[in-house]
């Protein structure tokens, strides 16, 4: 459906209906456009005004009547380019504002900030959030079997690309029943036996944040932002790292 396609590129439902109706009718008055689009006349006026502002419609007078004309479909490409430029400009401005906004964020000063996530998409979003200042090493502990069972190879590959792109260095304790992971330049890994240490969730500590995620039927995650808590979790994972040395071959 053309209407659905137009909605997917940014028009709302009524805008898509009115634009398509006008495109098909050619030069038309409001009542004909409204009838063709299935939108009441009063609403059609507002929709046309919005489309004219975006350059997708124009008007002219013939005698006492006002006629409207849909812009050539090629104009849609220009509209999308303008929206893209606007989004990029907003993103650039937001990045400039973030330091100021963070400086007045009382939540960080008074108590830990806690964010909850649900479902596979929520967990994926948690992973995408990970960035670290300077040369900090991200401490992690997780069950590799659970990760493989839960996420596709493509999704796991995306994580790797995110880590490499953001130059994230990791120190990982993991369980893996039927395999092992090699250490790399950007990640040191130590395997521990699952029967002794039944790790079933994902744990990560970076910057002032703690990331906890549960896989399986109850897929939920939480990110806790607090310097003291993060420091304590980091110390616990460092202690576990030292203790894991005896299980390395």
Describe the secondary structure blueprint for this structure.
Layout lengths: L1 H7 L4 H13 L4 H8 L3 H13 L3 E6 L2 E6 L4 H29 L2 H5 L2 E6 H10 L8 E7 H7 L2 H13 L3 E7 L11 E5 L9 E6 L2 E6 L5 E6 L1 H17 L6
Parallel strand pairs: 4-5, 5-6
Antiparallel strand pairs: 1-2, 3-9, 4-7, 7-8, 8-9
Helix pairs in contact: 1-2, 2-3, 2-4, 3-4
Mean pLDDT value: 86
Helix content: 40-55%
Backbone CA Rg:
27 Å
**Number of separate structural domains:** 2
Strand/helix succession: HHHHEEHHEHEHHEEEEEH
**Main CATH class of the largest domain:** Alpha Beta
CATH homologous superfamily annotation of the largest domain: Endonuclease Chain A
Largest sheet: 7 strands, mixed
Arrangement of strands in the largest sheet: 3-9-8-7-4-5-6
Beta-strand content estimate:
15-25%
Please give the CATH architecture of the largest domain: 2-Layer Sandwich
Polypeptide structure, described:
- By secondary structure, this protein is an alpha+beta fold.
- The protein has 2 domains: 2-75, Winged helix-like DNA-binding domain superfamily/Winged helix DNA-binding domain (Arc Repressor Mutant, subunit A); 113-247, Endonuclease, Chain A.
- Helix content is 49%, strand content 22%.
- It has 10 helices and 9 strands.
- Helix 1 (2-8) packs across helix 2, helix 2 (13-25) crosses helix 3 (30-37) and helix 2 (13-25) crosses helix 4.
- The radius of gyration is 27 Å and the shape is elongated.
């Amino acid at each position: 459906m053309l209407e659905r396609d137009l909605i997917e590129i940014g028009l709302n439902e009524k805008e898509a209906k009115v634009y398509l109706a006008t495109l098909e009718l050619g030069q038309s008055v409001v009542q004909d456009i409204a009838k063709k689009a299935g939108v009441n006349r009063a609403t059609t006026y507002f929709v046309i005004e919005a489309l004219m502002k975006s350059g997708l419609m124009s008007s002219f007078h013939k005698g006492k009547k006002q006629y409207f004309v849909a812009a050539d479909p090629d104009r849609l490409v220009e509209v999308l380019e303008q929206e893209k430029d606007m989004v990029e400009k907003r993103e650039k401005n937001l990045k400039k504002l973030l330091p100021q906004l963070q400086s007045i964020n009382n939540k960080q000063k008074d108590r830990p900030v806690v964010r909850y996530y649900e479902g596979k998409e929520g967990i994926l979003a948690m992973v995408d959030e990970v960035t670290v200042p300077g040369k900090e090493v991200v401490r992690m502990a997780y069950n590799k079997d659970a990760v493989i069972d839960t996420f596709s190879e493509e999704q796991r590959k995306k994580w790797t690309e995110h880590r490499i792109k953001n130059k994230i260095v990791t120190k990982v304790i993991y369980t893996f029943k039927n395999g092992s992971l090699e250490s790399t330049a950007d990640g040191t890994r130590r395997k521990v036996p699952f029967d002794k240490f039944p790790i079933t969730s994902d744990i990560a500590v970076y910057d002032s944040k703690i990331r906890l995620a549960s896989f399986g039927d109850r897929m939920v995650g939480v990110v806790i932002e607090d310097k003291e808590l993060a420091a304590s979790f980091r110390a616990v994972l460092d202690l576990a790292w030292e203790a894991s040395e005896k299980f390395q071959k």
